[in-house]
Design goal:
Layout (H helix, E strand, L loop, with lengths): L6 H25 L3 H4 L1 H31 L4 H28 L4 H21 L6 H22 L10 H31 L3 H19 L14 E2 L14 H14 L2 E4 L2 H30 L5 H28 L5 H22 L2 H29 L5 H25 L4 H23 L19 E2 L17
Helix pairs in contact: 3-4, 3-6, 3-7, 3-8, 4-6, 4-14, 5-6, 5-8, 6-14, 7-8, 7-11, 7-13, 10-11, 10-12, 10-13, 10-14, 10-15, 11-13, 12-13, 12-15
Length: 486
């Protein structure tokens, strides 16, 4: 208590007390359920810095890239913006997944490197903000951000506390990343840009955050490097259609012993997981579409004042935030006994609101579609996580999460591309995206029922697929009827 009480001193004292209590509460939440001992707390901090970096870069590049492309006056800028949005996913899809399967050591270094390289690019952007270097540097930032997301998905099962399951861990990472990273850093970056009137301070902030992220990535426990015995997960399946309820572990171990000497093993994803992937991918098409489309619509309304345009974006942004939080909160509390069915229902609900938005042709239903789409996306992702954890053997969970994250990001960018390319008339945009989602919904339903539109990528597979050997076994042969190795 200060010796001489004044309004200013009392306010400063109370402010310090509230700040200290908030920080203490945050640390308790981050370390709850044994997260500090398992290494989850360290990963949580790294995820928050990744989200914070993305938010700071988004604020810094808003006027230069996003809103200049959103005006639609320069088709070259639109094309370059679309390239920066799509290319990261096109790069990580064929490269990151296979690289994870081969990366037996050094995953912490890979996470830290994704931050370190972004530090270099942020500094490059500071000194080349008005030149052609802006576009390749921004592209590199996006690629490294998405690479971190895929790497994080593969590392998460390795820091799982015994007190909670993987579904709730992923929900926790999402909430911490959203609140502590995206919202907190986004507000700070926006304030810096407003005070300074330029993007330079925001870029320096991003550089500082990435340095912190590299440090925090190396604080993740070393046991995440232990990947011996991991079996890569695969999306395709070309075996028989026999239905199995449980994995015969004796048979799997026998075949694994033979495969380790003369072949390579892989773990096909089961029917429930594939259903979850198709449903989540369909939903991500809508969320990716809405993320970019509404901003382009707002900027195209030249008859509206800037304040009205900002209000349009704020309405849709608030709907997305509320939906995301609600979906994650519901997923953390629901008993996910039949996760594939939950995904199917979420996909159907999202398709319905997209069709309604196309018919009604106004901003209000677009906001409702954003709310439902965000909530359904979060809940469906939680359900997919539950399927991955339940259906895959322990040695394939990390690879399965890496594969699923790559697929979902690719689906998001398909919707984002539609949001950039389609005309800024609500009924046209939502009609086209509803047509695309119809294909995804049909495939999700067929996969759930054991059929498919695409051979090898649908439901013509067991609920729990057995491991396969990708190379012929010459010296060892597993007897498929008895499980004995001869």
């Amino acid at each position: 208590m200060p010796r001489k009480l004044t309004v200013t001193r009392v306010a400063a004292m109370r402010s310090r007390e509230l700040t200290n209590k908030t920080i203490a509460t945050f640390h308790r939440a981050a370390k709850a359920d044994g997260a500090d001992k398992s290494g989850l707390t360290a990963l949580t901090y790294a995820v928050m810095t990744n989200n914070a970096t993305d938010a700071a870069i988004a604020v810094a590049l808003a006027n230069t890239l996003f809103f200049s492309a959103a005006t639609g006056e320069d088709k070259t800028k639109v094309a370059l913006y679309l390239l920066i949005t799509i290319a990261p996913f096109a790069v990580i899809a064929p490269l990151i997944g296979p690289m994870l399967d081969r990366l037996q050591h050094g995953r912490r270094v890979a996470l830290a490197s994704s931050f370190g390289l972004r530090t270099v690019l942020a500094v490059v952007l500071v000194f080349n903000f008005d030149s052609w270097v802006l576009y390749p540097a921004a592209l590199g930032m996006m690629v490294l951000s998405k690479s971190f997301s895929v790497l994080k998905s593969a590392v998460t099962p390795r820091v799982l506390p015994p007190e909670i399951d993987l579904v709730r861990v992923n929900s926790r990472l999402t909430v911490f990343g959203l609140l502590g990273g995206t919202i907190g850093a986004g507000a700070l970056a926006g304030g810096l840009a407003l005070v300074t009137g330029s993007s330079m301070a925001t870029l320096w902030l991003a550089a500082a955050i990435t340095l912190l992220g590299a440090y925090l990535s190396m604080r993740i426990p070393s046991w995440v490097e232990v990947t011996e015995g991991e079996v890569p997960a695969t999306l395709t399946y070309h075996g028989d259609d026999r239905h199995t309820e449980v994995i015969d572990r004796t048979r799997v171990m026998a075949e694994a012993d033979a495969a380790s000497k003369s072949g390579k093993r892989r773990q096909p994803l089961g029917r429930a997981v594939i259903t979850g992937l198709w449903g989540n991918s369909t939903i991500r098409v809508l969320t990716g579409f809405l993320t970019l489309y509404i901003a382009f619509v707002a900027k195209s309304r030249t008859d509206h004042e800037p304040l009205i345009q900002a209000a349009m974006l704020g309405l849709v942004g608030a709907a997305a935030g509320i939906g995301n939080f609600t979906g994650n909160a519901a997923g953390a509390r629901l008993k996910l006994g039949r996760p594939a069915l939950i995904v199917l229902r979420c996909t159907g609900a999202v398709w319905v609101v997209a069709v309604i938005a196309a018919v009604t042709d106004n901003l209000l239903t677009a906001a409702v579609a954003t709310l439902v789409g965000s909530a359904a996306s979060a809940l469906a992702k939680v359900s997919l996580d539950a399927s991955l954890q339940h259906d895959l053997p322990e040695e394939s969970i990390a690879s399965g999460f890496g594969r699923s994250e790559t697929v979902l990001q690719l689906s998001w960018v398909v919707g984002g591309a539609l949001g950039v390319l389609l005309p800024t008339e609500y009924w046209i945009g939502f009609t086209v995206v509803s047509a695309v989602m119809t294909v995804g919904l049909v495939q999700t339903v067929l996969t759930y029922r054991g059929s498919t539109l695409l051979p090898g990528l649908g439901g013509k597979r067991p609920d729990l697929a057995e491991q396969e050997v990708t190379q012929p076994i010459s010296t060892h042969r597993a007897d498929r009827s008895t499980g004995n190795v001869t």
